[in-house]
Design a protein that fits this description.
The structure is a single chain. By secondary structure, the protein is mainly β. It has one domain. Strands 1, 2, 3, 4, 5 and 6 form a 6-stranded antiparallel sheet that branches.
Length: about 90
């Protein structure tokens, strides 16, 4: 629910990744929590990954990642998780 309150900011962030991105679709069903490694025994902590498509193109994908601290999403840690892609190929 917290991330859904920031839906427009997430969409604006994805649009900022490429000027050809005019619309962003978020697939909330694909949202997942993951433990990330950083090469140390304790690991890198937990993140939430949000993704979806763009420009209503079938097969388009993007992901952004948020860090989690004390069980809460830290919104201002949003970063690109994977490049914009269409059919598995990088969108440029």
């Amino acid at each position: 629910a917290y991330l859904k309150e920031h839906e427009e900011e997430i969409k604006d962030f994805v649009k900022s990744l490429n000027p050809k991105v005019e619309s962003v679709q978020i697939d909330w069903d694909e949202t997942m929590w993951e433990k990330v490694g950083n090469g140390t025994p304790q690991g890198g902590g937990n993140v939430v990954i949000v993704g979806g498509g763009f420009n209503n193109i079938e097969g388009s994908t993007w992901q952004v990642i948020f860090e989690i601290e004390d069980g809460r999403v830290v919104f201002d840690t949003m970063m690109q998780g994977s490049p914009l892609r269409v059919g598995g190929r990088i969108f440029d």
